[in-house]
Automatic annotation (TrEMBL):
Pfam families: Ion_trans_2, TrkA_N. It comes from the Bacteria. It is found in: Cell membrane. Residues 117-240 form the RCK N-terminal domain. Gene3D superfamilies: 1.10.287.70, NAD(P)-binding Rossmann-like Domain. Keywords: Ion channel, Ion transport, Membrane, Transmembrane, Transmembrane helix, Transport. GO terms for biological process: monoatomic ion transmembrane transport; potassium ion transport. Residues 23-96 form the Potassium channel domain. This is Potassium channel protein. GO terms for cellular component: plasma membrane. It is a multi-pass membrane protein.
Length: 332
């Protein structure tokens, strides 16, 4: 029963462990054998084992050499058997390394780090954002979750890629969502805006269900879905449509011959409008107090949304209410 149990345990081991175990057993057996065949030439068992490894690995230091015919027959048997198993072990390690690199590029390897940023969805904005972070914060660890990409080369983008649907718990677990610091959910521009927002809200619910404390930034296309995204657990809502509409209005209504649209894009290319539920510590505070607090966090407070109405640049002593949604300009 014991032998059968050990046999079953052996066959359940990973291939590398099984090969290493076989190498150790075989080299030890040949080391013991050569010690007893030629005790003068190999005074200790360890000397025999050393000779077995050096010979099977084709290193051949020549410090221990069998002199008798029987000893040389043992050496031939070692070369024919041990050399092959060590070569197979080394080639298996090489193949496993290559396979792991391929799995990493194909998004099949779980992420084990902590305090990382998770970006969901690959598009041109995501690419620019990743390049921006790599340039300014090279130590920041970024995990990208996307279901459309087939592979991401680490040499081109030093990020950890996870292929899959961010609404699934298994995919979020692979990205180590429980230890993440922030999450950005980008909208899928290939879908209808309503469908894209619905998926974003589902992803927000899944993320919040796995991590109650992670900071979630969600991109929402339609105004009507902002409240739903906040209820789902998003801390900040980004609406690219607001930003673009403002720029279009500025361009169409501007009468100068210059190109203010391009000027604004140059200045604000790393900015986006953000909708954020009023933090508890700012309830009943003035617009001025909220502006100073957000400014210290790198955000420019523009106004707020109350009862579905946008209030832009209110009076500085205007008090904020618990259900207000802050409208600010943040780094993208």
């Amino acid at each position: 029963m014991t032998v059968k149990l050990l046999k079953n345990l052996y066959f359940r081991l990973p291939i590398l462990i099984k090969l290493l175990t076989s190498v150790l057993i075989l080299m030890t057996a040949f080391g013991i054998l050569i010690h007893y065949v030629e005790p003068i030439q190999f005074p200790t068992i360890f000397d025999g084992i050393w000779w077995a490894f050096v010979t099977a690995a084709t290193v051949g230091y020549g410090d221990y050499v069998p002199l008798t015919t029987t000893g040389r027959i043992v050496a031939i048997a070692l070369i024919l058997s041990g050399g092959g198993i060590i070569a197979f072990y080394i080639s298996t390690i090489s193949a496993a390394t290559i396979q792991r690199e391929q799995n990493l590029e194909q998004g099949k390897i779980p992420y084990r780090g902590i305090n990382h940023f998770i970006i969901i969805g690959w598009n041109e904005r995501t690419r620019q954002l990743i390049e921006h972070y790599i340039e300014k914060f090279p130590a920041l660890q970024i995990v990208l979750i996307d279901r459309t990409l087939d592979r991401v080369s680490y040499n081109e983008y030093p990020i950890h890629f996870i292929k899959g649907d961010a609404t699934e718990d298994d995919i979020l677990s692979m990205a180590n969502i429980r230890m993440a610091q922030k999450v950005l959910i980008t909208g899928d521009t290939s879908k209808l805006e309503k469908l894209a927002d619905t998926w974003t809200i589902l992803a927000t619910l899944a993320i919040r269900g796995n991590n109650q404390d992670v900071f979630i930034v969600a991109e929402i296309f339609t105004k009507i879905q902002i409240e739903n995204a906040i209820r789902a657990g998003a801390n900040t809502i980004i609406r690219p449509n607001d930003f673009l509409s403002t720029l279009f209005f500025h361009e169409l209504s501007h009468m100068r011959t210059a190109t203010p649209f391009e000027d604004i894009l140059h200045i604000l290319k790393q900015k986006q409008f953000s909708h954020m539920k009023l933090p508890a510590e700012l309830e009943n505070s003035t617009f001025k107090d909220a502006s100073l607090l957000l400014m210290s966090q790198g955000q420019l407070l523009l106004g707020y949304v109350r009862d579905g109405e946008y209030v832009i640049h209110p009076k500085k002593n205007q008090h904020l209410k618990p259900d207000d949604i802050l409208l600010s300009l943040i780094d993208w």
